[in-house]
Write a structure and sequence with these properties.
The protein has one domain (about 10-55). About 20% of the residues lie in helices and about 0% in strands. The chain is built from 1 helix and no strands.
């Protein structure tokens, strides 16, 4: 799946990492017995001023 991704320099730094983590943990369909492992790949540092759950 990662082979199909293309980076196009969105120019919208910094990234909204907190929302991405929240979506990965709560909006994806995980099997109840699955071990959740994620890889964070961004081209910019995260926002740190959103006061969200994941920081």
């Amino acid at each position: 799946m990662l082979q199909s991704l293309v980076a196009d320099e969105g120019g919208d730094t910094p990234e909204d990492l907190q929302s991405a983590l929240d979506a990965a943990m709560h909006q994806l369909s995980w099997r109840p017995d699955a071990l959740r492992i994620g890889f964070i790949i961004t081209d910019a540092p995260p926002h740190t001023n959103y006061h969200q759950r994941y920081n």
